[in-house]
Design goal:
Blueprint lengths: L4 E5 L2 H15 L7 E5 L6 H11 L6 E2 L7 H19 L3 E5 L3 H12 L4 E4 L11 H12 L2 E4 L3 H8 L7 E3 L3 H9 L6 H7 L14 E4 L3 H4 L2 H17 L2 E4 L2 H9 L11 E4 L4 H9 L3 E4 L2 H10 L3 E3 L8 H4 L3 E3 L4 H15 L13 H14 L4
Parallel strand pairs: 1-2, 1-4, 2-3, 4-5, 5-6, 6-7, 8-9, 8-11, 9-10, 11-12, 12-13
Helix pairs in contact: 1-2, 1-7, 1-16, 3-4, 4-5, 10-15
The chain binds uridine-diphosphate-N-acetylglucosamine (UD1).
Uridine-diphosphate-N-acetylglucosamine binds next to α1, α2, α5 and α11.
Length: 377
């Protein structure tokens, strides 16, 4: 019996990256056996289970059920619970994706046990070490043995940090594989609003609608910052109705800071975190997306929808250079200016980056099979 490829997921942005990879590994001839492990970093129906169904992900064979905690507690707990799972299953390698705490925690355990680590979406850098994800990315890439990148700048970043070129493979963007595979299944935005008791008439505005997501600690954990951002969103909403999918952290902070009342339901539909197919429908039809998510910057580029990123930097520069993304930070003037430009039909159009063609997982699977056959050098 061949040792399995252990595929690790933990948090929402991991699921859409792993789904196409599992399919591609199964489609190899001969297929590579896989074992899906969920750390349980995200555990809610709408942060986790719904996405498994939407993406056609199989139930994980192992769920570590770590749940929430401080970064230290969460990372340590994943490590503690991952070790016996690794011992029990003796995989040929561990595949981790993205930059969440589960990514780094499982990497550290595996590499110290001599199990090769494969990192999908390697080499992205915001150059902002105040971001927990940046720490997770830098450290994972230092010790991973095979690194698959989504854009060419990633290899430069990795080589600058001393990662040997032979370990790096430019494979394209697996997230866009998921997007392409699911595009035709996207849910109707009106149904999505109706399902949550919001008025679908909001979507009938002449300008269309905008989609908002926000969950970065730097945007939502400080009351003054969050209040200021809500103020700008309210100004945008005067001209373009907004659909705001609230991450649990953001909702909790809005309630804690007494800011819920600042959101006018006549101009803004407030929804819980959405499933993948709901979000796809909302974004694909939107005039504009405002977000601090990493994934949405890429998805809007693939969909050709203008995106205003509420951050000072991005680890995905190709979305700005070639795609539809504009970095606006929390600058009120910049946000209003770019929103107005978009509404006037002068939003960024962009083009599809190289190898964001829906075939990235197939390239990774083929390379991985060869690499394992060569003894994971
Ligand atoms: C994590 C990732 C972030 C990613 C985001 C997507 C890290 C460091 N951060 O951030 O990169 O963009 O996921 O959502 O790994 N919670 C729930 N239900 C859940 C999960 C979380 O209510 O299923 C709440 C809890 O109050 C928890 C908080 O959300 O404390 C934050 O969750 P956590 O996993 O720590 O980080 P995210 O902010 O979700």
């Amino acid at each position: 019996m061949t040792a399995p490829v252990m595929c690790v997921v933990g948090a929402r942005p991991n699921f859409m990256k792993m789904a196409p990879l599992l399919r591609a590994l199964a489609a190899l001839d001969p297929p590579l056996p896989t074992l899906l492990l969920h750390t349980g970093q995200h555990y809610d129906q709408d942060m986790s289970h719904q996405l498994f169904d939407d993406l056609g992900l199989p139930r994980p064979e192992v769920n570590l059920e770590v749940g929430s905690g401080s970064h230290a507690v969460q990372t340590a707990e994943v490590m503690r619970r991952f070790e016996p799972a690794l011992d029990a299953h003796r995989p040929a390698c561990v595949v981790v994706v993205g930059d969440v705490n589960s990514t780094l925690a499982c990497t550290l355990v595996a590499v110290k046990k001599g199990v090769p680590v494969v990192h999908v979406e390697a080499g992205l850098r915001s150059f902002d070490r105040g971001m927990p994800e940046e720490i997770n990315r830098v450290l994972t890439d230092q010790v991973a043995q095979r690194l698959y990148t989504t854009e060419r700048s990633a290899a430069d970043n990795l080589q600058r940090e001393g990662v040997p070129a032979a370990r790096i493979c430019f494979a394209g963007n697996v997230m866009i594989d998921s997007l392409r595979a699911s595009r035709a299944l996207a849910r109707s935005p009106s149904d999505t609003l109706r399902a949550h008791g919001a008025d679908p008439a909001l979507l009938g505005h002449a300008a269309g609608w905008g989609v908002v997501t926000m969950h970065r600690p730097s945007n939502v954990d400080d009351p003054a910052t969050l209040a200021a951002l809500l103020g700008v969103l309210a100004e945008v909403a005067e001209r373009l109705p907004l659909v705001f999918a609230l991450h649990p952290r953001t909702r909790a902070n809005l309630e804690r800071f007494g800011l819920m009342g600042r959101l006018d339901p006549r101009r803004m539909a407030l929804l819980p975190p959405q499933g993948y197919l709901e979000m796809l429908g909302l974004m694909a039809g939107a005039a504009l997306v405002l977000t601090d998510s990493g994934g949405l910057q890429e998805e809007t580029t693939a969909l050709g929808v203008p995106c205003l990123t509420l951050r000072e930097n991005t680890e995905r520069p190709i979305t700005v250079e070639q795609g539809t993304n504009t970095l606006v930070g929390r600058d009120r003037q910049a946000i209003l200016h770019h929103a107005a430009e978009t509404l006037a039909g002068r939003g960024k159009r962009g083009r599809l980056p190289e190898l964001w063609d829906g075939q990235a997982a197939g390239r990774i699977a083929a390379d991985l099979a060869q690499w394992l056959a060569a003894g994971a050098p």
